[in-house]
Predict the 3D structure of the following.
Amino acid sequence: MKKLVILSGAGISAESGISTFRDAGGLWDKYPVMQVASIEGYEADPELVINFYNERRKQLLDVKPNQGHMLCAELEKYFDVTVVTQNVDNLHERAGSHNIIHLHGELTKVCSSYNPNNPKYIKELRPEEFEVKMGDKAGDGSQLRPFIVWFGEDVPRIADAAYEAEKADIFVIIGTSMNVYPAAGLLNYVPYNSDIYLIDPKDVHIETDRKITHIKKGASEGMKELMRMIAGV
Ligand code: OAD
């Protein structure tokens, strides 16, 4: 089976009702990004940041995967698929994808403030436990914090993602403005003779000399078109 790697971003979840970050009216228009998504912001006001992610986590109860996510899962019938996502929602999982690398963490998990990547202290929350409170403690006694990779922090799963990108016969970029590194740099690992597709209703500026086939549509329609092109269905 050919290897297919998907790099997804906020745009794939837009049709499920989750706001993107950089589109007009996106999350970073409403909240100062460095306040709610940086390690400095967390250290300055942990309660504000914890509450911001409580809201995002609560929203997961009201949204469901859209056809874009579903078709990513369906591609597993035809290809050996790995989804590398910058999204912290769980919509790829809920749509049935099996191999998912979350580069920027997961809303459904919490971790230690001292050592966010120590697996001993990473805990999966049940849906009804969406609310983390000040004073809730991780196993090492530190404040429990969202398991999210903030600006200023390492991206521990980038090596796993690069390893997958290196094996890709087909690389699909969907719903990301390709503004955030190291995620956007994954394209550089894709072999030179592989096919690269971009699904996005808007033009995306991508720093590369590679040939990219742009399917200029939203996630659901774009994934349908991709299925026709690469799987003939
Ligand atoms: P952005 O908000 O930067 O980009 C969203 C992209 O989705 C844009 O290119 C849109 O044109 C596209 N888009 C909008 N609607 C779409 C639809 N219906 N179907 C397909 N595409 C659509 O989001 P990301 O690139 O994911 O990190 O942002 C990357 C990272 O920046 C995020 O993971 C987050 C953020 O800061 C952290 O918070 C650590």
Q: What stands out?
A: The pocket of 2'-O-acetyl adenosine-5-diphosphoribose is lined by residues 9-12, 14-15, 20-23, 26, 37, 86, 104, 149-150, 175-177, 179-180, 200-202, 204, 218-219 (CB under 6 Å). Residues 46-59 form the longest helix (14 residues).
